[in-house]
Amino acid sequence: MQAERHILITGGAGFIGSHVVRRMVTRYPNYRITNLDKLTYAGNLENLRDIETLPNYQFIRGDIADPVFVMELFRTHRFDGVIHLAAESHVDRSIIAPDDFVYTNIIGTVNLLNAARAFWNKDQGCRFHHISTDEVFGSLGEAGYFTEQTPYDPRSPYAASKASSDFFVRAYGHTYGLPYVLTNCSNNYGPYQFPEKLIPLVINNIRHGRPIPVYAQGQNVRDWLYVEDHAAAIDLVFHRAVNGATYTIGGNNEWRNIDVVRKLCALMDQKLGRRGESAERLITFVADRPGHDYRYAINSSKIRQELGWAPVVDFDEGLRRTVDWYLDHTEWLDHVTSGAYRTYYERMYAGR
After folding, report:
1. To which H or E segment does residue 134 belong?
2. How far is 130 from 136, CA to CA, in rounded Å?
3. pLDDT under 70: residue ranges of the chain
4. Considering the domain boundaries, does residue 163 fall inside one?
5. How many domains, the chain?
Protein backbone atom coordinates (compact mmCIF):
# COMPACT_ATOMS: atom_id res chain seq x y z
CA MET A 1 0.00 0.00 0.00
CA GLN A 2 1.36 3.41 -0.94
CA ALA A 3 1.93 5.79 1.96
CA GLU A 4 -0.50 8.69 2.13
CA ARG A 5 2.16 11.02 3.48
CA HIS A 6 5.86 11.03 4.27
CA ILE A 7 6.49 13.13 7.36
CA LEU A 8 9.86 14.15 8.78
CA ILE A 9 9.86 14.59 12.56
CA THR A 10 13.02 16.27 13.81
CA GLY A 11 14.20 15.67 17.35
CA GLY A 12 12.03 12.57 17.54
CA ALA A 13 14.32 10.77 19.98
CA GLY A 14 13.89 13.50 22.58
CA PHE A 15 11.25 13.90 25.25
CA ILE A 16 8.35 15.57 23.42
CA GLY A 17 9.52 14.30 20.06
CA SER A 18 9.33 10.64 21.06
CA HIS A 19 5.71 11.06 22.14
CA VAL A 20 4.87 12.75 18.84
CA VAL A 21 6.65 10.06 16.82
CA ARG A 22 4.86 7.27 18.70
CA ARG A 23 1.49 8.94 18.21
CA MET A 24 1.98 9.53 14.49
CA VAL A 25 3.38 6.07 13.78
CA THR A 26 0.61 4.24 15.62
CA ARG A 27 -2.35 6.45 14.67
CA TYR A 28 -1.48 6.77 11.00
CA PRO A 29 -0.24 3.39 9.72
CA ASN A 30 -0.53 4.60 6.13
CA TYR A 31 1.97 7.40 6.77
CA ARG A 32 5.71 6.98 6.52
CA ILE A 33 7.34 8.59 9.55
CA THR A 34 11.05 9.44 9.47
CA ASN A 35 12.61 10.39 12.78
CA LEU A 36 15.69 12.59 12.38
CA ASP A 37 17.80 13.13 15.48
CA LYS A 38 21.42 14.01 16.14
CA LEU A 39 21.39 11.90 19.32
CA THR A 40 22.92 14.50 21.57
CA TYR A 41 22.74 13.86 25.32
CA ALA A 42 18.94 14.36 25.33
CA GLY A 43 18.27 12.13 22.33
CA ASN A 44 17.57 8.58 23.45
CA LEU A 45 16.35 5.85 21.12
CA GLU A 46 15.39 3.76 24.14
CA ASN A 47 12.38 6.09 24.21
CA LEU A 48 11.10 4.41 21.03
CA ARG A 49 12.00 0.75 21.41
CA ASP A 50 8.33 -0.23 21.37
CA ILE A 51 7.85 1.08 17.81
CA GLU A 52 11.30 0.84 16.22
CA THR A 53 10.42 -2.28 14.19
CA LEU A 54 7.10 -1.02 12.82
CA PRO A 55 7.07 -0.92 9.00
CA ASN A 56 6.05 2.74 8.66
CA TYR A 57 8.86 4.04 10.91
CA GLN A 58 12.50 4.73 10.21
CA PHE A 59 15.26 6.51 12.11
CA ILE A 60 18.00 8.61 10.54
CA ARG A 61 20.84 10.09 12.53
CA GLY A 62 21.91 13.53 11.41
CA ASP A 63 22.45 17.18 12.27
CA ILE A 64 20.02 19.82 11.04
CA ALA A 65 22.83 22.39 11.34
CA ASP A 66 24.50 20.72 8.31
CA PRO A 67 22.87 22.32 5.24
CA VAL A 68 24.28 19.81 2.73
CA PHE A 69 22.98 16.87 4.74
CA VAL A 70 19.54 18.42 5.16
CA MET A 71 19.18 19.26 1.46
CA GLU A 72 20.22 15.74 0.43
CA LEU A 73 17.79 14.25 2.97
CA PHE A 74 14.89 16.11 1.35
CA ARG A 75 16.14 15.23 -2.14
CA THR A 76 16.21 11.53 -1.26
CA HIS A 77 13.00 11.19 0.74
CA ARG A 78 10.71 13.87 -0.71
CA PHE A 79 8.92 14.62 2.52
CA ASP A 80 5.57 16.38 2.24
CA GLY A 81 5.40 17.31 5.90
CA VAL A 82 7.78 18.41 8.65
CA ILE A 83 7.09 18.47 12.37
CA HIS A 84 10.09 20.33 13.71
CA LEU A 85 10.94 19.70 17.36
CA ALA A 86 14.74 19.41 17.23
CA ALA A 87 16.17 22.03 19.56
CA GLU A 88 18.51 22.67 22.40
CA SER A 89 16.01 23.40 25.14
CA HIS A 90 17.55 23.70 28.60
CA VAL A 91 17.77 27.31 29.78
CA ASP A 92 20.67 26.65 32.15
CA ARG A 93 22.73 25.16 29.32
CA SER A 94 21.92 28.15 27.11
CA ILE A 95 23.36 30.48 29.74
CA ILE A 96 26.60 28.50 29.77
CA ALA A 97 26.92 27.74 26.02
CA PRO A 98 24.63 29.99 23.93
CA ASP A 99 26.44 29.17 20.67
CA ASP A 100 25.02 25.64 20.66
CA PHE A 101 21.53 27.13 20.68
CA VAL A 102 22.30 29.41 17.76
CA TYR A 103 23.56 26.53 15.60
CA THR A 104 20.73 24.10 16.27
CA ASN A 105 17.73 26.32 16.95
CA ILE A 106 18.34 29.08 14.41
CA ILE A 107 20.67 27.78 11.70
CA GLY A 108 19.15 24.30 11.86
CA THR A 109 15.66 25.70 11.40
CA VAL A 110 16.74 27.84 8.44
CA ASN A 111 18.37 24.79 6.82
CA LEU A 112 15.08 22.87 7.09
CA LEU A 113 13.15 25.84 5.69
CA ASN A 114 15.53 26.13 2.74
CA ALA A 115 15.16 22.44 1.95
CA ALA A 116 11.37 22.57 2.19
CA ARG A 117 11.31 25.64 -0.03
CA ALA A 118 13.54 23.90 -2.59
CA PHE A 119 11.44 20.75 -2.91
CA TRP A 120 7.87 21.75 -2.08
CA ASN A 121 5.18 23.07 -4.29
CA LYS A 122 2.96 25.08 -1.97
CA ASP A 123 -0.15 23.80 -3.75
CA GLN A 124 0.58 20.12 -3.04
CA GLY A 125 -0.64 20.01 0.56
CA CYS A 126 2.80 20.20 2.17
CA ARG A 127 3.17 21.61 5.68
CA PHE A 128 5.95 22.77 8.01
CA HIS A 129 4.89 22.64 11.68
CA HIS A 130 7.30 24.53 13.90
CA ILE A 131 7.15 23.69 17.62
CA SER A 132 8.14 26.55 19.89
CA THR A 133 7.86 27.68 23.49
CA ASP A 134 6.04 30.23 25.62
CA GLU A 135 9.44 31.50 26.80
CA VAL A 136 9.68 33.67 23.66
CA PHE A 137 7.11 35.98 25.27
CA GLY A 138 9.26 36.85 28.27
CA SER A 139 7.95 37.02 31.79
CA LEU A 140 4.54 37.76 33.32
CA GLY A 141 3.75 39.44 36.60
CA GLU A 142 1.10 38.26 39.01
CA ALA A 143 -1.68 38.59 36.42
CA GLY A 144 -2.27 38.09 32.73
CA TYR A 145 -1.66 35.36 30.16
CA PHE A 146 0.32 34.80 27.00
CA THR A 147 -1.78 34.66 23.83
CA GLU A 148 -1.06 34.48 20.12
CA GLN A 149 -0.94 38.29 20.09
CA THR A 150 1.59 38.71 22.93
CA PRO A 151 4.69 40.64 21.77
CA TYR A 152 7.94 38.70 21.86
CA ASP A 153 10.32 39.56 24.70
CA PRO A 154 12.82 36.67 25.12
CA ARG A 155 14.95 36.85 28.25
CA SER A 156 17.39 33.90 27.97
CA PRO A 157 19.67 32.74 25.14
CA TYR A 158 17.38 29.72 24.73
CA ALA A 159 14.28 31.91 24.42
CA ALA A 160 16.08 34.27 22.02
CA SER A 161 17.09 31.38 19.77
CA LYS A 162 13.53 30.05 19.67
CA ALA A 163 12.12 33.52 19.02
CA SER A 164 14.51 33.92 16.09
CA SER A 165 13.48 30.57 14.62
CA ASP A 166 9.80 31.54 14.98
CA PHE A 167 10.43 34.72 13.02
CA PHE A 168 12.29 32.85 10.29
CA VAL A 169 9.39 30.43 9.87
CA ARG A 170 6.90 33.27 9.55
CA ALA A 171 9.22 35.17 7.19
CA TYR A 172 9.50 32.16 4.87
CA GLY A 173 5.73 31.88 4.90
CA HIS A 174 5.29 35.55 4.02
CA THR A 175 8.16 35.91 1.55
CA TYR A 176 8.17 32.55 -0.22
CA GLY A 177 4.67 31.26 0.45
CA LEU A 178 5.99 28.32 2.46
CA PRO A 179 3.00 26.54 4.07
CA TYR A 180 3.51 26.53 7.82
CA VAL A 181 1.82 26.39 11.21
CA LEU A 182 3.42 27.37 14.51
CA THR A 183 2.69 26.46 18.13
CA ASN A 184 4.05 27.83 21.40
CA CYS A 185 3.59 25.54 24.39
CA SER A 186 4.03 25.76 28.14
CA ASN A 187 6.25 23.52 30.31
CA ASN A 188 5.81 19.85 29.44
CA TYR A 189 6.16 16.95 31.86
CA GLY A 190 5.65 13.20 31.78
CA PRO A 191 7.46 9.96 30.82
CA TYR A 192 10.83 9.98 29.04
CA GLN A 193 11.86 13.49 30.12
CA PHE A 194 15.61 13.90 30.59
CA PRO A 195 16.32 14.29 34.33
CA GLU A 196 17.93 17.71 34.10
CA LYS A 197 14.39 19.16 34.11
CA LEU A 198 12.61 19.89 37.38
CA ILE A 199 10.10 17.04 37.75
CA PRO A 200 12.27 14.05 36.78
CA LEU A 201 15.22 15.60 38.63
CA VAL A 202 13.20 15.77 41.83
CA ILE A 203 11.94 12.20 41.39
CA ASN A 204 15.42 10.83 40.79
CA ASN A 205 17.04 12.78 43.63
CA ILE A 206 14.40 11.64 46.11
CA ARG A 207 14.90 8.08 44.94
CA HIS A 208 18.60 8.32 45.78
CA GLY A 209 18.30 10.55 48.84
CA ARG A 210 20.12 13.43 47.17
CA PRO A 211 19.52 17.15 47.73
CA ILE A 212 16.70 18.70 45.67
CA PRO A 213 17.99 22.03 44.33
CA VAL A 214 15.36 24.79 44.16
CA TYR A 215 16.23 28.20 42.75
CA ALA A 216 15.91 31.10 45.22
CA GLN A 217 12.77 30.37 47.29
CA GLY A 218 10.94 28.50 44.55
CA GLN A 219 8.38 31.25 43.94
CA ASN A 220 8.63 31.19 40.14
CA VAL A 221 5.39 30.07 38.49
CA ARG A 222 5.00 27.76 35.51
CA ASP A 223 2.02 26.43 33.54
CA TRP A 224 2.38 22.64 33.27
CA LEU A 225 1.16 20.56 30.32
CA TYR A 226 1.17 16.76 30.27
CA VAL A 227 3.24 15.67 27.28
CA GLU A 228 0.59 13.39 25.76
CA ASP A 229 -1.88 16.28 25.74
CA HIS A 230 0.73 18.32 23.89
CA ALA A 231 1.29 15.53 21.35
CA ALA A 232 -2.46 15.43 20.72
CA ALA A 233 -2.47 19.19 20.11
CA ILE A 234 0.43 18.91 17.66
CA ASP A 235 -1.39 16.17 15.77
CA LEU A 236 -4.53 18.32 15.57
CA VAL A 237 -2.77 21.51 14.47
CA PHE A 238 -0.66 19.70 11.86
CA HIS A 239 -3.73 18.15 10.26
CA ARG A 240 -6.46 20.73 10.71
CA ALA A 241 -5.11 24.25 11.16
CA VAL A 242 -5.06 26.68 8.26
CA ASN A 243 -1.69 27.66 6.81
CA GLY A 244 -0.06 30.52 8.67
CA ALA A 245 -1.93 29.82 11.91
CA THR A 246 -0.32 30.17 15.34
CA TYR A 247 -1.63 28.59 18.53
CA THR A 248 -0.56 28.93 22.14
CA ILE A 249 -0.95 25.62 23.99
CA GLY A 250 -1.05 25.41 27.78
CA GLY A 251 -2.27 23.11 30.50
CA ASN A 252 -4.10 25.71 32.61
CA ASN A 253 -2.01 24.36 35.52
CA GLU A 254 -0.13 27.18 37.21
CA TRP A 255 2.07 26.14 40.11
CA ARG A 256 4.94 27.68 42.01
CA ASN A 257 8.09 25.59 41.66
CA ILE A 258 8.27 24.99 45.41
CA ASP A 259 4.70 23.67 45.42
CA VAL A 260 5.50 21.27 42.57
CA VAL A 261 8.50 20.02 44.54
CA ARG A 262 6.43 19.52 47.69
CA LYS A 263 3.74 17.64 45.76
CA LEU A 264 6.42 15.34 44.38
CA CYS A 265 7.89 14.82 47.83
CA ALA A 266 4.49 13.75 49.18
CA LEU A 267 3.87 11.43 46.22
CA MET A 268 7.29 9.83 46.49
CA ASP A 269 6.89 9.34 50.25
CA GLN A 270 3.63 7.55 49.53
CA LYS A 271 4.86 5.47 46.60
CA LEU A 272 8.06 4.39 48.33
CA GLY A 273 6.26 3.65 51.60
CA ARG A 274 8.53 5.96 53.55
CA ARG A 275 7.21 6.92 56.94
CA GLY A 276 8.50 9.44 59.39
CA GLU A 277 11.04 11.71 57.73
CA SER A 278 9.61 13.26 54.56
CA ALA A 279 11.53 13.78 51.33
CA GLU A 280 11.00 17.50 51.94
CA ARG A 281 14.10 17.37 54.14
CA LEU A 282 16.10 17.13 50.87
CA ILE A 283 14.90 20.53 49.57
CA THR A 284 17.93 22.79 49.20
CA PHE A 285 17.50 26.41 48.14
CA VAL A 286 20.27 27.53 45.79
CA ALA A 287 21.29 30.82 44.17
CA ASP A 288 18.78 31.94 41.56
CA ARG A 289 19.31 31.42 37.84
CA PRO A 290 20.51 34.59 36.04
CA GLY A 291 17.55 36.39 34.48
CA HIS A 292 15.05 33.90 35.88
CA ASP A 293 11.58 34.69 34.47
CA TYR A 294 8.99 35.01 37.22
CA ARG A 295 5.83 33.57 35.68
CA TYR A 296 4.58 31.89 32.51
CA ALA A 297 0.89 31.24 31.83
CA ILE A 298 -0.93 30.53 28.57
CA ASN A 299 -4.43 31.33 27.37
CA SER A 300 -5.34 28.41 25.06
CA SER A 301 -8.80 29.63 24.14
CA LYS A 302 -8.01 29.93 20.41
CA ILE A 303 -7.09 26.26 19.91
CA ARG A 304 -9.98 25.23 22.14
CA GLN A 305 -12.51 27.24 20.13
CA GLU A 306 -11.15 26.67 16.62
CA LEU A 307 -9.92 23.06 16.80
CA GLY A 308 -11.70 21.66 19.86
CA TRP A 309 -8.52 20.73 21.73
CA ALA A 310 -8.35 20.72 25.52
CA PRO A 311 -5.98 19.00 27.94
CA VAL A 312 -7.47 15.85 29.43
CA VAL A 313 -4.89 15.12 32.15
CA ASP A 314 -5.06 17.37 35.20
CA PHE A 315 -1.92 18.09 37.18
CA ASP A 316 -2.47 15.75 40.10
CA GLU A 317 -3.26 12.85 37.77
CA GLY A 318 -0.34 13.74 35.52
CA LEU A 319 2.09 13.82 38.43
CA ARG A 320 0.85 10.43 39.62
CA ARG A 321 1.30 8.96 36.15
CA THR A 322 4.74 10.51 35.87
CA VAL A 323 5.98 9.29 39.25
CA ASP A 324 4.60 5.80 38.58
CA TRP A 325 6.31 5.70 35.17
CA TYR A 326 9.74 6.66 36.52
CA LEU A 327 9.48 4.21 39.40
CA ASP A 328 8.42 1.47 36.98
CA HIS A 329 11.28 2.35 34.61
CA THR A 330 14.24 2.69 36.95
CA GLU A 331 16.46 0.92 34.41
CA TRP A 332 15.69 3.65 31.85
CA LEU A 333 16.38 6.31 34.46
CA ASP A 334 19.65 4.68 35.52
CA HIS A 335 20.77 4.37 31.88
CA VAL A 336 20.05 8.04 31.29
CA THR A 337 21.76 9.35 34.41
CA SER A 338 24.81 7.12 33.91
CA GLY A 339 25.09 7.69 30.15
CA ALA A 340 24.77 3.96 29.46
CA TYR A 341 21.81 4.59 27.13
CA ARG A 342 24.22 6.00 24.55
CA THR A 343 26.54 2.99 24.33
CA TYR A 344 24.42 0.63 22.22
CA TYR A 345 23.22 3.26 19.77
CA GLU A 346 26.63 4.90 19.49
CA ARG A 347 27.97 1.57 18.26
CA MET A 348 24.99 1.05 15.97
CA TYR A 349 25.34 4.44 14.28
CA ALA A 350 29.10 4.87 14.51
CA GLY A 351 30.38 6.63 11.44
CA ARG A 352 26.98 7.45 10.03
Report:
1. none
2. 14
3. 1-3, 122-123, 339-352
4. yes
5. 1
Dihedral in degrees, nearest 10, Cα atoms 262, 137, 19, 218:
-10
Is residue 346 part of the annotated active site? The answer reads: no
Task: Tell me if 324 is assigned to some domain.
Answer: no
CATH number assigned to the domain comprising residue 99: 3.40.50.720
User: How many angstroms separate the CA atoms of 176 and 127, rounded?
Assistant: 13
Instruction: Name the DSSP class of 230.
Output: H
Q: How far is CA 244 from the centre of its chain?
A: 21
Catalytic option among 46, 134, 223, 229: 134
114 vs 89: CA distance, rounded Å: 23
Q: 66 an active-site residue?
A: no
pLDDT digit string, tens, across residues 301-312: 999 999 999 999
196 included as an active-site residue: no
Q: What's the domain range around 80?
A: 5-193+224-253+295-313+341-348
CA dihedral (223, 228, 229, 231) in degrees, to 10, reads 110
